[in-house]
Amino acid sequence: MQRAYLRRVSQRLLEVLLAEPARIESVMMPAEGETAIDDDMQFMIAGYADIDRALGADAFLVQGGTPIGDIVFGDGPARAFTAPDVRKLATRLALTTAPNAIREYAIVKQFVTDTARAEAAIIITIE
């Protein structure tokens, strides 16, 4: 079963990765014993397709964002959402009527909202 991985990164790190996409591997797959991203800054969800279906036109987990290079992680390249993109996503999610009954939806909504408040960016991979 494929999963969507959402990772919160600083806008500065995202800008570096967009300028130097080859560095994405060291962030997404750090060497053993190294941690590029704190565990509280990332999470995995299995129900991402259900969330995107519920969001309809506001779907962003499967498509959207800016590809970071051409290194494939599972189902394509990592995709970036800049801090301004994340603020727009948070606003859209706050206005959506997607069912909060989908447990993962509430988690994604909170993650995006917290990331927007931190003025950070998000990297998504489908693996």
Quick summary of this structure?
The chain is built from five helices and five strands. By secondary structure, the chain is α+β, with helices and mostly antiparallel strands. The chain has a single domain, classed as Hypothetical protein yfbM fold.
Report on the architecture of this protein.
The protein is α+β, with helices and mostly antiparallel strands and 127 residues long. 39% of the residues lie in helices and 22% in strands. It has helices at 11-19, 24-28, 48-55, 83-95, 103-117; strands spanning 4-9, 42-45, 66-72, 77-81, 121-126. Strands 2-1-5-4-3 form a five-stranded antiparallel sheet. Strand 3 (66-72) and strand 4 (77-81) form a beta hairpin. Helix 4 (83-95) crosses helix 5 (103-117). The longest helix is centred in the C-terminal third of the chain and has 15 residues, at 103-117. The protein is globular.
Question: Class by helix and strand content?
Answer: alpha+beta
The helix count comes to: 5
What is the CATH-assigned architecture? 3-Layer(aba) Sandwich
Q: What is the helix/strand order?
A: EHHEHEEHHE
According to DSSP, the number of beta strands is 5
Count of separate structural domains: 1
Please estimate the helix content. 25-40%
Mean pLDDT: 82
Return residue spans where pLDDT drops below 50 for at least 5 consecutive residues: none
User: Which sequence of strands runs across the widest sheet?
Assistant: 2-1-5-4-3
CATH topology: Hypothetical protein yfbM fold
Strand content is 15-25%
